[in-house]
UniProtKB/TrEMBL annotation:
Record-given protein name: Predicted nuclease of restriction endonuclease-like (RecB) superfamily, DUF1016 family
Stored Pfam families: DUF1016_N, YhcG_C
InterPro entries in the cross-refs: PD-DEXK-like_domain, tRNA_endonuc-like_dom_sf, YhcG_C, YhcG_N
Cited PANTHER family: NUCLEASE YHCG-RELATED (PTHR30547:SF5), UNCHARACTERIZED PROTEIN YHCG-RELATED (PTHR30547)
Domain annotation YhcG PDDEXK nuclease: ranges: 173-327
Key words, A-Z: Endonuclease, Hydrolase, Nuclease
Nuclease in keyword set: yes
One term of GO molecular function: nucleic acid binding
UniProt domain YhcG N-terminal: residue ranges: 15-148
KW Thylakoid (keyword) present: no
């Protein structure tokens, strides 16, 4: 093939793509080998402890002395905390084949900070499903994602969540209670309007979609609907590529009331008849408010056939200890 038929720039692009893919594979291979190596380090430490050598030779100073000697012999990477987490890596994943090649040591280092085996299992699976960066993993753990999702399930559901991660199969799987919007940086006492909340979300759309979860594609804001000669405006409109349906989001600054539910029901009926096309499933409506009255919600949604989901949002990180206590009670029942 002559250079006229295959432009030189195309040759450069092909070589560039090849090199980029090769480098990515090399980095991934290095990360995989590093995690496996640290797992074996953890195994050796545990076996050393189990033989009673720790007490006999070093007592409680094992990790301090081991860190000092390994750093001197092999350089950085063997701090006391790193060694403790290598030990925990082995204990948490006793079969090395269960380690994910998609996760780096930095991922595992954060995951192993979790307090329970259920959390460790959940965040490992979720990192694989969502392809989280280490930064996003830190944010989700800090926002107590596992507890927020688990508290909406029964005991069996919690155990399945920990084992499989959060898999979206139906409308109810879209809900977290509460949604945490700390990234909007709105002070809690601040008297904001619903328009202010919407503006902040649009300015932080990527983080909002990450909080909403996998599968959301943003379509627009203040989406206009003409119904019976009147115009109505939906705050946020998404399409969910997994559930294959429109997802309508309405924001409320205060408590969700029955009028908000009725309005969302109206919007959903409109979308079913006017917006949905062949292949679309029925739309889902989510009303996000700062508060919700559970009894009012129960009566207001009782006879509605459309999928109207209600959830709270909060502008600050939740109290993990409180959520954990609630989860412990659920698991004990």
């Amino acid at each position: 093939m002559s250079l006229e038929k295959q432009p030189y720039s195309e040759l450069i692009d092909k070589i560039g793509t090849l090199l980029q893919n090769g480098r990515q594979q090399a980095v991934q291979s290095v990360n995989t080998i590093l995690v496996q190596t640290y797992w074996y380090v953890g195994q050796h430490i545990v076996e050393f402890e189990q033989k009673g050598n720790e007490k006999a030779e070093y007592g409680s100073q094992l990790f301090e002395r081991l860190s000092k000697d390994l750093v001197q012999a092999h350089g950085k990477g063997f701090s006391r905390s790193n060694l403790l987490y290598m030990r925990k890596l082995y204990l948490s994943f006793p079969i090395s084949e269960t380690l994910s090649h998609l996760l780096t040591w930095s991922h595992y280092f954060e995951i192993l900070k979790a307090d329970s085996e259920l959390e460790i299992s959940f965040y490992t699976k979720q990192c694989q499903h969502e392809r989280w960066s280490v930064r996003e993993l830190k944010r989700q753990m800090k926002s107590s994602l596992f507890e927020r999702l688990a508290l909406s399930k029964d005991k069996e559901g919690v155990l399945r969540l920990a084992k499989e991660g959060h898999i979206v199969e139906n409308a109810e799987d879209l809900i977290k209670d509460p949604f945490v919007l700390d990234f909007l940086n709105i002070p809690e006492p601040y008297q904001y309007l619903e328009n202010d909340l919407e503006e902040k979300i649009i300015s932080n759309l990527q983080q909002f979609i990450m909080e909403m979860g996998k599968g959301f594609a943003f379509i627009g804001r203040q989406y206009r609907m003409s119904i019976g000669g009147k115009h109505f405006y939906l705050d946020l409109l998404f399409y969910h590529r997994i559930l294959k349906c429109f997802v309508l989001v309405d924001l409320k600054r205060g408590e969700i009331d029955h009028q908000d539910i009725g309005q969302m029901n109206l919007y959903l009926n409109y979308f079913k008849k006017e917006e949905a096309t062949e292949g679309d499933n029925e739309p889902i409506g989510i009303v996000l408010g700062a508060h919700k009255n559970h009894i009012l919600v129960e009566y207001a949604t009782d006879s509605i056939t459309n999928k109207v989901l209600l959830s709270k949002y909060q502008l600050y990180l939740p109290d993990k200890k409180t959520l954990q206590n609630q989860l412990d009670k659920l698991l004990e029942e």
